[in-house]
Amino acid sequence: MILPPVVAVPLIVAAVAIGVTLVYASVLDAKERRVPHRTWRPALAVAIPAAVWVYGLILLADWRTAAGYLILVAVFCGFFYLFGAANLFGGADAYALIIITVCIPFFPIEPYFGSPPHGFFPFAVLTNAVLINIAAPIAIFARNLIQGNRAPLPCLFLGFPVDGKEIQNEFGFVMEDIEEQDGRLVRRFVGFTESLRRMVRGEKRIYTKDLRLHPEDYRSELALYRKAGRVWISYGIPFIIPITAGFLTALFMGDILFVILTILAGM
Prior knowledge:
- With 267 residues, the protein is mainly alpha-helical.
- Helices cover 63% and strands 8% of the residues.
- Strand 2 and strand 3 (184-189) form a beta hairpin.
- Helix 1 packs antiparallel against helix 10 and helix 2 runs antiparallel to helix 3 (63-85).
- The longest helix is centred in the first third of the chain and has 28 residues, at 5-32.
- Its main location: membrane.
- Keywords: Cell membrane, Membrane, Transmembrane, Transmembrane helix.
């Protein structure tokens, strides 16, 4: 779907502003595990007027098509908000996806592999981000196999062991419950479903960042980690990095999932 310049140009301007901010937010999240809302203010100042202009033009040209896309925008924004509220997405991740959905509903330019039939840019960003994010667990699993690390199968995809004495210098959250009972260490992996339940209940996980910034609050845990020798932590890639990669690949390459399905259908 090739948009007329009067629609495409504002979307391109919004895409540039949001893309630059996504890259900056990815750097912030990787370093500090936090992206303040003010990070998005310059991009919103550019993207919101552009989006209003685009919605207005589409409403005047074909209100039925505009209404369909507005419903999609509302559904996706509601989906991202609920996932953020349930702690299934980070707050910054949900915020980024909502901004992309509201401000860039259509593909600003024709990507290399063409626009998918749905033409809904945020869906391509989300599916691309998920597919890109899947590559990390596969690489971690291969690393654990090569190093001979032993753990429940799901944990082999989601994390790896680190030196308990250096755990504060790593990035991720602790995947084990470690206690000392009768002078011996008792350790248990926290499974995916249990971890998910804890997230939904709002129970705080132990992040290596907190161990680094507030060691006085985790003296007993740090002592146990040193005694344990090696402690399993999750890989520390913030989801906003795959979102940024998904945004850029969707913009220039297209919907990866649609391309894969098209290739498979033609085989």
